[in-house]
Amino acid sequence: MDATEYLKLLKERNIKVPSTGAGYEEIVDNPLSVVENAKKLGAKYVMVAWIPHKADFDIFEAQQAVEDFDKVGKVLAENGITFCYHIHGYEFIPYQDGTLFDFIARRTNPKYVSFELDMLWAFHGGANPEGLLDKYPTRFKMLHVKDLRKGVQGNHSGSTPVTNDVTLGTGQIDVAGIIRKAKKLGIKHYFIEDESPIQNIQVPQSIAYLKSLKE
């Protein structure tokens, strides 16, 4: 489906696309094509959700990502698009006085590199999602809102079975607390992400849960 046909379907349903995604290699090799695609969709943000790595993510891969993100982010910023890296849990391997995510956040240029907080992956990787928002209050522009099945133990793999995605408010994550924190920081875009095999059941339940939240 091309962008024109897709946008027609979205318009009929009153759905807008504030953000779109791109692969790491795609955005490094041809950032202007990513810009073109984002503009066709009307998106103001482009996110990358995975840094290629072998075995455990390491400092050398983090250093390469910093270099690539700054270059890509500058090109996107010059074209009116904000680049965001979507954290995926493996970046929370300890490094020096923090984690490899801290290394990326501290070394990238805030003018060109922002972040999307996926609350499930942050939690699964051993981080405190609310603590990350407190630590980097101006760097996170968007949230992936999702919950992790109770009893599941996290790790730094950036992977868990899709059946561990559960209806918001029924898992381990303080979804309401994270959203309240994010709203106080002025974050405007929140995306329900449900990769479970019963998303047609869970997403309406998650929407109802979000609507039930009090300020």
UniProtKB/TrEMBL annotation:
S-adenosyl-L-methionine recorded as keyword: no
Annotated keywords: Isomerase
Database matches in InterPro entries: IolE/XylAMocC-like (IPR050312), Xyl_isomerase-like_sf (IPR036237), Xyl_isomerase-like_TIM-brl (IPR013022)
GO molecular function, one term: isomerase activity
Name of this chain's protein: Sugar phosphate isomerase/epimerase
Residue ranges constituting the Xylose isomerase-like TIM barrel domain according to the UniProt record: 25-212
